[in-house]
TrEMBL record, chain A:
Annotated positions of the O-(pantetheine 4'-phosphoryl)serine modification: S37
Lineage: Bacteria, Pseudomonadati, Pseudomonadota, Alphaproteobacteria, Acetobacterales
GO cellular component assignments: cytosol; membrane
GO BP annotations, alphabetical order: lipid A biosynthetic process
Protein name in UniProt: Acyl carrier protein
PTM comment, free text: 4'-phosphopantetheine is transferred from CoA to a specific serine of apo-ACP by AcpS. This modification is essential for activity because fatty acids are bound in thioester linkage to the sulfhydryl of the prosthetic group. 4'-phosphopantetheine is transferred from CoA to a specific serine of apo-ACP by acpS.
Function: Carrier of the growing fatty acid chain in fatty acid biosynthesis.
The species this protein was found in: Siccirubricoccus deserti
Listed NCBIfam families: acyl_carrier, PRK00982.1-2, PRK00982.1-3, PRK00982.1-4, PRK00982.1-5
Carrier domain residues: 2-77
Length: 78, 427
């Protein structure tokens, strides 16, 4: 697992209060991890803070799974 | 407004919950209160060096089994950050009250007949302060999406309704330090009028923070002479009093239509028989010089209860330990009770827990109910030398067994808002 993936999963566990085992790469924040729309806004802000990236709203809307988040962040960091 | 053929319905108390500086759990807090213990201590959670008042009543940290607060036992971690502390405390007290009442409706119509009315004097003050700091630091985009719902006063009622599926009236009172009594009284009226069969009602406050303390220090309302001896600082009617001691906490009761409670075999603590309100129309923070607002509030409550002053054996005073307010309230009670003042017991339990602002009336309402249940008047701590004599027994320092069947509780707030509520022993 990449360093980014590990960090993303850790943030998801902390913010959504879910078991680490449930945070698979395919897990959807809303459908699988019990997040609501405000939770996802906060998650994206936490990613921005942790990785020092800007995630504009239109991009944030497309980040619905753990995998989406990892891919977006890795893409930004080049 | 009022259904044609309906008469007001009777309202009883079937559940109670408290989180306050004497701890968690109604029985635990009551036992400590009667024993003359104090919940006032030095503030440790933030730096008080620039504040003239350095003490407060803070909810003790520890396990539920010890009668203390560990939030993780009550609210999932992920939800805690969506709530200012006043909401967290409201939820804790509401969970205790609802569990105590045994009313956990699953049927749609029962849920729709159950409402929530939890108020707060100030609401999410600390949450607003923290967001302001972020904005001042140029981080407006980092303000949490939970900032607004965490700060809003009616979100205490919102969270409790969501937790239990209570789909009846969802309301919130905001009348400064009179909030708790207004919430209980207004909720009782909703039941009496038929808007709901059950109401979860109360008040919550969490202003023991830098911004809360600084604000009340600035309004010259807080005690500053007892920073070295915190437990002596709240001393209603005593000549050495010099202001109130800030406290945090929540009090919540389950109010229920009498027949509804009887039908399900609920334990009934007391009946809500009277409620009165008034406005001073005088000053934004000072009580009216004649005590007339307090007098009219109590008179209205007794009138609505249909009882004479002589029939009331106990008054839980607003009694905040401020130089002006305490004796004005005392004078108003003496005037209303007249010759019957001699038989009356009146104490201020703020002497033990401080002033819980918007939660005060709800917590003190619960103390009044317990005074009826156990036939005992809780003490006024630190009342060594009254600033003036009175025929009313102010229950100095030690609880007194008394034949209490009717009790009145007062709460008065900034803005000149007054409320009084009257309870009677369970029917």
């Amino acid at each position: 697992m990449s360093e980014t993936a590990e960090k993303v999963k850790k943030i998801v566990v902390e913010h959504l209060g879910v078991d680490e085992a449930k945070v698979t790469e395919d897990a959807s924040f809303i459908d699988d991890l019990g997040a609501d729309s405000l939770d996802t806004v906060e998650l994206v802000m936490a990613f921005e803070e942790a990785f020092g990236v800007e995630i504009p709203d239109d991009a944030a809307e497309k980040i619905t799974t753990v995998k989406d988040a990892i891919a977006y962040i890795e893409g930004q960091k080049g | 407004m009022f259904p044609n053929d309906a008469a007001p319905r009777r309202v009883v108390v079937t559940g109670m919950g408290i989180a306050c500086p004497l701890g968690l759990g109604v029985e635990n807090v009551w036992k400590r209160l009667l024993a003359g213990e104090s919940g006032i201590s030095a503030i440790q959670s933030f730096d008080v060096k620039d504040l003239p008042a350095k003490i407060a009543g803070q909810v003790p940290i520890g396990s539920r089994a010890e009668g203390k607060l560990d939030l993780n036992e009550w609210i999932p971690v992920k939800d805690q950050k969506k709530m200012d502390r006043f909401i967290q405390l409201a939820v804790v007290a509401a969970v205790e009250a609802v569990e105590d009442s045994g009313w956990l409706p699953k049927a749609e119509e029962d849920q729709a007949a159950t409402g929530v009315m939890i108020g707060s004097g100030i609401g999410g003050l600390t949450t607003i302060y923290e967001a302001s700091q972020q904005i001042a630091a140029g981080k407006a985009k980092r303000v949490s999406p939970f900032f607004i719902p965490s700060a809003l006063i009616n979100l205490a009622s919102g969270h409790i309704s969501i937790r239990y599926g209570f789909k009846g009236p969802n309301h919130a009172v905001v009348t400064a330090c009179a909030t708790g009594v207004h919430a209980l009284g207004d909720a009782a009226r909703l039941i009496a009028f038929g808007d709901a069969d059950v109401m979860v009602a109360g008040g919550a406050e969490a202003a023991v923070s830098e911004i809360g303390m600084a604000g009340f220090c600035a309004s010259r309302a807080l005690s500053t002479a007892f920073n070295g001896t915190p437990q002596q600082a709240s001393r209603p009617w005593d000549e050495g009093r010099d202001g109130f001691v800030m406290g945090e906490g929540a009090g919540v009761v389950v109010l229920e239509e009498y027949e509804h409670a009887k039908k399900r075999g609920a334990k009934i603590y007391a009946e809500v028989i009277g409620y009165g309100m008034s406005g001073d129309a005088y000053h934004i923070t000072a009580p009216s010089e004649t005590g007339d607002g307090a007098y009219r509030s109590m008179r209205a409550a007794l009138r609505s209860a249909g009882v004479a002053p002589a029939e009331v054996q106990y008054v839980n005073a607003h009694g905040t330990s401020t130089p002006l307010g305490d004796d004005l309230e005392l004078g108003a009670v003496e005037r209303l009770w007249g010759d019957d003042a001699r038989g009356l017991a009146m104490s201020s339990t703020k002497s033990a827990i401080g002033h819980l602002l918007g939660a005060a009336g709800a917590v003190e309402g619960i103390f009044s109910i317990l005074a009826i249940r156990d036939r005992v008047a809780p003490p006024t701590l630190n009342l060594e030398q009254p600033s003036r004599e009175s025929p009313i027994d102010r229950v100095a320092k030690v609880a007194q067994e008394r034949p209490i069947t009717v009790a009145l509780s007062n709460s008065f707030g900034f803005g000149g808002t007054n409320a009084s509520i009257v309870f009677r022993a369970a029917p």
